[in-house]
Amino acid sequence: MHWSRWEYWPPGVIYLPVVVYYLYLALKYRSLTAITATNPGLAMFGLSNEYKSRVLDRIADRKYVAPYCVIPVTDIPGDRFNLALESMKSYNLQLPIVAKPELGGRGKGVKIIKTRQELQSYFLKMNHPVILQQYIEGSEFGVFYYRIPGEEKGRIFSITRKTKPSLTGNGEDSLGTLILSDEHIIGMASYHMKKNLERLAWIPAYKENVKLVELGSHCRGSIFFHDRDMYTPELEERMDQLSKRIPGFYFGRYDIITPSIVDFKAGHNFSILELNGVTAEAVHIYDPENSLFYAYKILFQQWQLAFYIGYLNAKKSYPQKTIRQTLNILRAMYKESGKIVEV
């Protein structure tokens, strides 16, 4: 990790000022748990560790959701593989698929499964409820949306393009040297070196393209860019229509993939992979061009919005969770997600 690149610092370091700002907002709105009313229609108000399928299930227009099924935990681990095959057939899912834990975040436990052998191996390691979701080729984006209670129209707060980095060989340098020489991926060099340990000495041919990343997760090596050119009235209208049909949803980030940028800007031909609620980030802050001070400006803005929306919803008789209820939810969720293993 390069400490000169703040976007790769540990979250616990980056978020210290945000915690202080959170406490300021709690004083301002006279509630530590106002955000539990921000998305009253979501069972756990849209925490990043909420069960992913429960949130996806609430999206009414299914043509905009990437097909998925849920594989629960069984008494015999080997049964999960057979159950997965049956469920994939029932839901018309074809290999390759994306397997990911129902609970958890930051790419932990997520894997693209290309063969039946990989699927069987995945379930031997993963003793948690799992989503199997159809793998879709295309461009991936994070679209952060919010709507103020009482207002007719919601808005797009930010759009982030998630780029999966690759390297181009020159016929002379090894893969390890190419990784250390690329200014965009140097911040995650240790991660890329570890993931490519067996081929670091390999010398790619001249102009040979070498993929380093398969998943659109920042902590798994993808690079995020603030894509201002993607903003269109048509896309904002579509996101507003989809969001208003989710009962009790006002604030969060859609992770989306599309095979056509032109279609996406026109507000159609895309698939929602996940929907993250109140603790979601406007991930355009991780654009390498952005300073840490800019990131704090955006994070403060989004938390201000989350508190304000929760405050207004609470006035509309959507009850906030108590501090004890909130702590119990957090404790149970993070205890469970902390057991998830890397695959």
Topology:
Elements: H1 11-14, H2 16-28, H3 52-56, E1 68-71, H4 77-90, E2 97-101, E3 111-113, H5 116-125, E4 130-134, E5 139-146, E6 155-163, E7 166-168, H6 175-181, H7 189-195, E8 209-211, E9 223-226, H8 233-244, E10 251-258, H9 261-265, E11 271-276, H10 292-315, H11 323-337
Antiparallel strand pairs: 1-4, 2-3, 2-4, 5-6, 5-10, 6-9, 7-8, 10-11
Largest sheet: 5 strands, antiparallel
Rg, alpha carbons: 21 Å
- In DSSP terms (H or I, runs of 4 or more residues), the helix count works out at 11
Secondary structure: helix percent = 25-40%
What is the H/E string? HHHEHEEHEEEEHHEEHEHEHH
Question: Beta-strand percentage?
Answer: 15-25%
Kindly name the structural category: alpha+beta
End-to-end Cα distance, whole Å, is: 21 Å
Question: Which whole number gives the mean pLDDT?
Answer: 87
As an assembly, this protein is single chain
The general outline is globular
Poorly predicted runs: none
| Spatial strand arrangement across the major sheet | 9-6-5-10-11
| Number of distinct beta strands | 11
Labels describing this entry:
single chain; 343 residues; alpha+beta; five-stranded antiparallel β-sheet; four-stranded antiparallel β-sheet; 11 helices
Give me a quick take on this structure.
The protein has eleven helices and eleven strands. It has 343 residues and is α+β, with helices and mostly antiparallel strands.
Written description of the protein model:
This protein is an alpha+beta fold. The chain is built from eleven helices and eleven strands. The strands form three sheets. The chain has a five-stranded antiparallel sheet. A four-stranded antiparallel sheet has the order 1-4-2-3, with helices on one face. It is globular and about 65 Å long. The model has no long low-confidence stretch (mean pLDDT 87).
